[in-house]
Amino acid sequence: MRLIFDIFSQTLQTLWAHKLRSFLTMFGIAWGVGSLLLLVGLGEGFRSGNRKQFDSIGENVLFIWSGRAPVVQGSFTALRQYYLTYRDYLDILTDCPSVGAAAPAISRGDIRAVSEFYQASGQIVGVPANFSQIRYLPINEGRWLNDLDDLQKRAVIVIGDEVRRTLFPGRPAIGATILLNGVRFTVIGTLQKVGHGDNMNLNLRSFVPFHTMQDYFRPLNAGIATDVISMINYQPRSRALHETAKQEVHKIIARNHGFDPKNPDSFDEWDTVKTVDEVGKIFDAMNMFLGSVGLVTLALGAIGIINIMLVAVADRTREIGLRKAIGATNGSIMFQFFVEGAFLTMLSGGLGIAGAAALMAALSNVSLGDGFDPPKLVVSTAALAVVSLGVAGVAAGLYPARRAALLEPVEALRKE
User: Same domain for 281 and 250?
Assistant: First the structure.
């Protein structure tokens, strides 16, 4: 035990004797490790922020809107507008086995909402009661729309957080009335704030029963059909079935509106499942790239430490010869230089990890904007860095240590 303590003491004395050289070597490795963890942490924060944005929409949600289809099959030289209808929604429910849930919506952005105190603009959306099962709409006060509200075409409304703040500043909203283009609606619920930062689009929306919206505020510029809707939200029965569900919906829409479902340009849609997967692949590739850069940085740092230790062996040749002359074994000489190299590597790497962790902790409460969460220390990356540092430390200490141990005492003592 005392021998190990003496070796560590000599290691510290040697490093202190060459402060600048040791500092520069350690700084290079600490900077590389810290930069690796910080970059991966920033990427993970971005991934987390994007995931939260998608979670604020809903789980595995697909959207489809009205679109434009070829007048003649197979030709896109002339396109005609078609509009989604309530019949499309009903057919999707009955003829699409891979669709787990669906909800139609009528959306208008030109309706003025007026309370006793102020007026507000925003989107008014007519939806059925099951809309909240597909989309993420957390209730703050009151309740959500129910089937009876829709069946009886009640003039009730659930307002978004920003609408509540505007129309009822510091006042209770539940039970109050507002006018939508002169039509009186009773507020039955308010929503929690959804999203991050200054992105208020979701919080400027208010919701009324679907059939109430259909009676009072039909879609504008939507042809002559009486059952036109703005969009359909739907979910697959499972995440793995999202592509199958989408193709089934395509067939229904194409059949009802008379065009070829194999023309993807005929559909105006958004598949959030596919988008999330694509974004995840980008982040995975980025993490692999940053990990590779980090490993290269550690390898260069290890080469630097090997160089430093070889210089140390050359500088201490007479010391090595003297120690071997008075009985030091090859093993003890090798162990000392190995400990110096490994200690230098692990200490500098530990400082880099600690520095990166401290910086990310300091940034934990800082807002980086919409879609960005503060950087997070990725445990797997930190573990990879520690393992890599261990390998680098072995490489940095082993070769110089072996070279020192193989020196002949007489030749070493002769060295000037």
Answer: no
Q: Quote the domain boundaries for residue 284.
A: 2-55+277-414
Whether 61 maps to a domain, the answer reads no
The amino acid at 336: Q
C-alpha count within 13 angstroms, C-beta hemisphere, residue 17: 9
Each residue of 185-243: pLDDT tens digit?
999 999 998 765 555 678 889 999 999 999 999 888 777 778 899 999 999 999 889 89
Q: What is the pLDDT of residues 118-160, one digit of tens each?
A: 888 889 999 999 999 999 899 999 999 999 999 999 999 999 9
Please state the three-class secondary structure of 125-164 as a single string. EEECCCHHHHCCCCEEEECCCCHHHHHCCCCEEEECHHHH
- The answer to whether 345 and 17 are in contact (CB under 8 A) is no
Distance CA 132, CA 192 (A): 13
- Asked whether residue 256 falls in the same domain as residue 400, the answer is no
Q: What is the dihedral of CA 270, 272, 278, 280, to 10 degrees?
A: 160
For residue 156 the two structure tokens come to 């009730």
> Which helix H or strand E contains 357, and what residues bound it?
helix 330-362
The H or E element containing residue 301 is helix 272-315
Answer yes or no: is 246 within a domain.
yes
What pTM does this model have?
0.70
